[in-house]
Amino acid sequence: MNENLLAEIGLDKKMDESRQGEAFYSPVINPNAGSRKFYIESYGCAMNFNDSEIVASILHSSGFRATGNSEEADLILINTCSIREKAELTVRKRLTEFRKQKRSKPEMLVGILGCMAERLKSKLLEEEKLVDMVVGPDAYRDLPFLIETADGGQKAVNVLLSRDETYADINPVRLDSNGVSAFISITRGCDNMCSFCVVPFTRGRERSRDPHSIVNEAQELFDSGYREVTLLGQNVDSYLWFGGGLKKEFDKATDEQKKNAVNFANLLELVARVHPDLRIRFSTSHPKDITDEVLQTIARFENICDHIHLPVQSGSSSVLERMNRTYDREWYLNRVDAIKTIIPDCGISADIISGFCGETEEEHQETLSIMEIVRFDFAYMFTYSERPGTLAEKKYQDDVPDEMKQKRLHEIITLERIHSHDSNRLDVGKTYKVLVERSSTKSKDEMCGRNSQNKMVVFANRNCKPGDYVNVKITSCTSGTLLGEIL
Question: Is there a domain that residue 31 lies in?
Fold first, then answer.
């Protein structure tokens, strides 16, 4: 990375010396913002949560104010997810409930945002008549016009995907925030064509956000009291900014653009230099793209957390090929070895899918065996859910019986819990720097926060508050939590 870029963004060499599906409800942001009220529920990934914060900012600027009570709202929006069938069913149930609410308040508008909006626009608008507005992930700036259209009795739709929209100039309104941790989107869309995934079709091609705006947002968050940011993207490792355009067009960039290009390792360094007390996390990594340069950057900066979420999906190379993951079992294990070598104390978590198309018992056993080798600290585990329009739906039969999917998932979950508990037991007796997030859900006399490895730590409150850093000695553990005492 060219040093001129550091100076351009406001960083210099002297700074080296100082060195993530439940719904949430938006609180009142500004009681004087306007007379009409909006209510947002968000489902799915952290990207959706961050998108809802962008939407809240746009609505707030247009004279709306937020409410946490759907019954007093003039505008209800659901930010949707299409990754799994269960998420879509939940959204449909909520839309049906809001339609009943609309009978007693016909002037109220109901709209859907996000991935389901693009995929099911006609069905939700015309056939089922569940919504007044359908707004895709790249059309949030158009919300004021769409609301005006819907107010006039017309159906309002914009699901066009963009080549360059990143919302870089919009300062998100932090919804349901603890005031300690916040999300920052660094890319939108995805160029990976995993056969089970709808994201490339619902969010468009991958484009990276200007690093200046990312650093500025991180600085503003720190100045406002936040002490942790999570950099978000469908595939953060492929972040590449060279002055605009889609990543796939980098070969057409000028020599000057290529010279000043910023990759993910560069971006991590830039954000880490905002302040040593600002913790940096990121999600999600892709095994085909995570580089030693990224790992070495993490190792260099104490405030870049030692945790990598590295989805494996399957331990079988043949299944990974059908999934179009573009890496095999050996490549994944090579990346894990690199992580453990360069960042010895790094926590590693994963996503795992059971029962993908054509999965045999032998292929399932390969997933269990890779779990035994890596011994993940945590994992998100699911049965395969066929999504309409994906490559898998077009090419393969969803032929693993549901009972077999559930049986295999149970075996995966059982093994993961053993590994998580074993990992936590190894932490007993160690001392970790913990960022205090909130009071414990079980007791007001206890606080909780995460260590660098993204493990939740619970400890007795000794006059600490959210946003403080404390050193905690681990005295015991459960399979999911570390328990300790402040030193």
Answer: no
Assess whether 233 and 274 both reside in one domain: yes
| 314 and 382 fall within a common domain | yes
301 lies in the same domain as 312: no
Q: Which among 407, 350, 343 is positioned nearest to 373, based on CA atoms?
A: 350
| C-alpha to C-alpha distance for 302 and 375, rounded to whole angstroms | 24
Q: What percent of the chain has pLDDT over 90?
A: 67
Lowest pLDDT segment from 338-352, 358-372, 440-454? 440-454
With CA atoms as reference, report the closest residue to 472 among 450, 444, 441, 454.
450
Tens digits of residue pLDDT in 350-364: 999 999 999 999 999
Residues 289 and 389 grouped into a single domain = no
- Please tell me the distance from the alpha carbon of residue 49 to that of residue 46, in angstroms, as a whole number: 5
Q: List helix spans (H) across 210-263.
A: 211-223, 255-259
Inter-CA distances, 395 with 22, 196, 319, 324, 358, Å: 32, 11, 14, 12, 11
Which pLDDT does position 34 carry in this prediction? 57
What are the pLDDT digits (tens) for 452-482? 999 999 999 988 999 999 999 999 999 999 9
Confidence category of residue 117, pLDDT binned at 50, 70, 90: confident
What is the pLDDT confidence band of residue 90, given thresholds at 50, 70 and 90? confident
Domain for residue 257, yes or no? yes
480 domain-assigned: yes
CA atoms within 13 A on the CB side of 110: 21
For residue 28, being part of any structural domain is answered with no
User: Do 421 and 436 sit in the same domain of this protein?
Assistant: no
- State the distance between the two ends of the chain, measured CA to CA, in whole angstroms: 41
**Residue span of the structural domain in which 332 resides:** 306-427
- Note every long-range contact of 87-95, with CB atoms under 8 Å and residues 24 or more positions apart, other chains counting: 87/21, 87/43, 87/44, 88/116, 88/120, 90/43, 91/43, 91/116, 92/130, 94/23, 94/41, 95/124, 95/130, 95/131
In the DSSP assignment, the letter for residue 304 is B
Length of the chain: 487
**Is residue 300 exposed (0-12), middle (13-18) or buried (19+ Cβ within 10 Å)?**
middle
Q: Is the domain of 296 the same as that of 325?
A: no
Over range 402-422, report the average pLDDT: 97
Phi/psi for 86 (5° steps) reads -60, -40
Q: CA–CA distance from 360 to each of 138, 328, 363, 366 (Å)?
A: 39, 17, 5, 10
pLDDT tens, position by position, 152-204: 989 899 988 888 888 888 888 887 678 999 999 999 989 999 999 988 888 88
Is 50 exceeded by the pLDDT of residue 232?
Answer: yes
Domain count, the chain: 4
Residue from 350, 406, 408, 354 nearest 379 by CA: 350
